[in-house]
Amino acid sequence: MVHGTLVARMAEARRRGNVVAADRGAANGHTPDGRVSRGEPPVAETVDVVVVGAGPAGSAAAVELARAGREVLLLDRAAFPRDKPCGDLIGARAMAWARSLGIAEADLAPYSRLAGAHVTADGGALDLVPVTALGRMPLRRSDARVVPRVVFDQAMVRAAERAGAVVRQGTVRSVGPPEPEGRTVRVEGPGGGEEILAGGVVLAGGYGCRVAADVATAPQAGDPPRGIALRGYFGNVAAPPDRIVFSLDRWVLPGYGWIFPLPDGGANVGVGTLVRPGEGEAEHLRELYARYTEDPASPAAIWLAGARPIQDPRSWPLDLGPRRRRLVADRLVVAGEAAGLVGPLTGAGIAFALDSGAHAGRALARALASGEAEAGALRPYAVSLRRRFGPWLRAELWAQRFLSDPNRVRLLLDATRPLPPTAALGARLLLHLG
Ligand SMILES: Cc1cc2nc3c(=O)[nH]c(=O)nc-3n(C[C@H](O)[C@H](O)[C@H](O)COP(=O)(O)OP(=O)(O)OC[C@H]3O[C@@H](n4cnc5c(N)ncnc54)[C@H](O)[C@@H]3O)c2cc1C
Fold first, then answer.
1. pLDDT above 90: residue 432
2. Which residue in 25, 204, 248, 314 is a FRET match for 135, CA 20 to 30 A apart?
3. Residues 111/242, Cβ–Cβ less than 8 Å
4. Could you tell me which CATH class the domain 113-145+227-318+403-431 is placed in?
5. Considering the chain, what is the average pLDDT of its residues?
């Protein structure tokens, strides 16, 4: 329906006897006269923009691009609805973004608003739930909820579809270098392989997405360690239904355990930690998880005593920020976790994903409309991302290092417990993280 001028130009170029393909040359599997060489999939379509990855960052970008009148193809290697190992905490900032991007209220309705948080550390506990009307003031606009990603991400994909994006299953194998008319995206779908010529690309493939060689930065000295977390779902959990539980006991540091409530006595339960080279992280993580969920001495034991696991736990790594990443290139923007936007203290990244995805979509739409989609025209997106998120990510990194000492955690807990404003401010902080 929405055909931009670029698509028309591309179609014209292809009508002119594969001029585009001929220009691309043999590197992309085309013979000099424009015919597709043997074994290479043909350029089957042209679109204004391909979005790689239909997580929160990709869906947000697709919504904004479609709203700007662009023809958008949102590709994901998974068939939706798909699960993504996560704590499922959709914080207040993320929820505000999801609404502004058009998520349907009916999809959120079963999941109730959180009232606050509960933090435990080495036998101490801090309940961060304001009880007075004054104390609740800082939370009056907070609508943080726990929504399983299998539901939330599907709801965001539907929002992108409603905005006009086309959603399709397909694994992007590579995004070719920039050329005068676009970039060639090689896709492997259930029906086979194809090449798509895209005027612009949003890279939103989450952890470890390296499909575009010109932005696939190797890990840099000074990058924070990666995170890894293991998450399971339980039924019959006795934890408070209106607050998120964080456990910062010394044996889980640097990292934490969590119990995040779901309807009808369900909960998302997990542990996360930092990856240290050569540590045997998978085994270490499983031990932490077993201790957190099964050991009678665990801070979670009082809530999980009668609980039953609903499915096997799943682990997933995290590209904790701040990372030195290339965020723009000619005809390409990077968003979400692929851009290293995950809080190094909390592991929260959904708000960053929605925010950066929406801004990436707007930046690319503007650039394509002006006919100037090279890196220089897209650089303001990268600059604004660094300006807005850099200080926050650095502060989280500092806090993560400071709080990896169990004595400091306990000191903080004991020092803040008697202060009445703590509940309001602590709850606001924790519910705004994701
Ligand atoms: C265990 C765990 C718990 C977490 N808990 C929270 C939490 O409670 N709250 C919070 O805010 N954050 C949390 N996070 C972080 C959060 O999950 C991520 O920051 C967030 O998912 C990033 O969103 P994204 O859209 O950038 O990437 P993703 O959500 O990872 O989506 C990327 C998508 O791209 C697709 N994809 C990847 N490569 C390709 C390809 N080549 N071709 C096609 N498709 C591709 C994937 O299938 C996927 O659907 C947690 C992370 C982990 C691991």
1. no
2. 248
3. no
4. alpha beta
5. 88
Cβ neighbour number for residue 364 with a 10 Å cutoff: 32
Query: 326, 281 in Cβ contact below 8 A?
Result: no
* Pocket residues: Cβ below 6 A from ligand 1: 52-58, 75-78, 84-89, 171-172, 204-207, 209, 211, 229, 231, 270, 316, 318, 336-338, 342, 347-350, 353, 434
The residue extents of the domains of the chain are 5-83+150-218+321-396, 113-145+227-318+403-431
Helix or strand or coil: residue 293? helix
CATH among 3.40.630.30, 3.40.50.1970, 3.90.1150.10, 3.50.50.60 for 5-83+150-218+321-396: 3.50.50.60
Tally of CA atoms within 13 A in the half-sphere of 168 that contains its CB: 16
Pocket test of ligand 1: the residue of 84, 207, 230, 352 to mutate, having most ligand atoms within 8 Å of its CB, is: 84
**Out of 21-25, 68-72, 121-125, 371-375, least confident range:** 21-25
Strands 243-247 and 266-274: unpaired
Q: What is the mean pLDDT of residues 275-299?
A: 90
pLDDT for 9 equals 44
At position 290, the amino acid (one-letter code) is: A
Q: Does the reported pTM lie above 0.85?
A: yes
